[in-house]
C-alpha cells in the first residue's frame, strides 16, 4: 500500500472537470491555505446572517465574537501568505460550501426561537470542526516544512477554534438544547 506521493506522481481532482496536480507536501499546504482562506472570508459574510436569525442573547454574543475572530483569521492567513510568498488567493472550499448551504436550509426550515438556535449551534459546530481539522493539518504541514513562524500563527487559529467549539457546547448544554426539547415536546403532544 502506498501512502506517499512521489515528486513525479500527482493527485488529480475531477471536480467540475478540473485537473489539479499536487506534487508534494508543499503543494498540499498551499492548496489548504487557499481553501481555508476562502472558507474564512465566506464566514465573515455568513456569521451576520446567523446572528440575525438567532434568538438567544448568549448565542448572538458568541456569533459576534466569532465574527471578530474570523476577521482576525483572515488577516492572519494574509500574513501567512506574505510570509510564505504564496499569492493570497481564495480557492472555493466545497466542504465549507456544503456546510453553509445546509446552514441556510436549516434556518429556512425552522421558526425563530430555541429550536433554530439549537440548529444554528449544530451548524456552527460543523464549521468549527472543519476549521479545527484544517488548521490542525496545516499546522502539522508547516512544522514538517520548517515554517515555524507560520506554524505558530496556525496554532493560534487552531486554539481559538477549539475554544469557540467548547463555548458553543456550553451554550447548547446550559439551556438551549433543553429548551428546544421542551418546545418540540409541546408541539408534538
Automatic annotation (TrEMBL):
It holds the Pfam family DUF892. InterPro entries: DUF892_YciF-like, Ferritin-like, Ferritin-like_SF, YciF. This is Uncharacterized protein. It comes from Flavobacterium fryxellicola. The lineage of its organism: Bacteria, Pseudomonadati, Bacteroidota, Flavobacteriia, Flavobacteriales.
Amino acid at each position: 500500500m502506498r501512502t506517499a506521493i512521489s515528486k513525479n506522481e500527482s493527485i488529480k481532482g475531477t471536480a467540475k472537470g478540473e485537473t489539479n496536480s499536487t506534487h508534494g507536501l508543499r503543494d498540499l499546504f498551499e492548496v489548504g491555505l487557499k481553501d481555508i482562506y476562502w472558507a474564512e472570508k465566506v464566514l465573515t459574510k455568513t456569521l451576520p446572517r446567523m446572528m440575525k436569525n438567532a434568538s438567544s442573547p448568549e448565542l448572538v454574543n458568541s456569533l459576534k465574537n466569532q465574527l471578530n475572530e474570523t476577521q482576525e483569521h483572515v488577516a492572519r492567513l494574509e500574513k501567512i501568505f506574505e510570509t510564505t510568498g504564496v499569492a493570497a488567493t481564495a480557492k472555493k472550499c466545497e466542504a465549507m460550501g456544503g456546510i453553509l448551504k445546509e446552514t441556510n436550509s436549516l434556518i429556512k426550515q425552522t421558526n425563530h426561537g430555541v429550536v433554530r438556535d439549537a440548529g444554528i449551534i449544530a451548524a456552527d459546530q460543523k464549521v468549527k470542526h472543519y476549521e479545527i481539522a484544517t488548521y490542525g493539518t496545516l499546522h502539522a504541514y508547516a512544522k514538517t516544512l520548517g515554517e515555524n513562524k507560520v506554524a505558530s500563527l496556525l496554532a493560534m487559529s487552531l486554539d481559538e477554534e477549539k475554544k469557540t467549539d467548547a463555548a458553543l457546547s456550553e451554550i447548547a448544554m446550559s439551556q438551549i438544547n433543553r429548551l428546544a426539547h421542551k418546545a418540540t415536546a409541546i408541539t408534538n403532544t
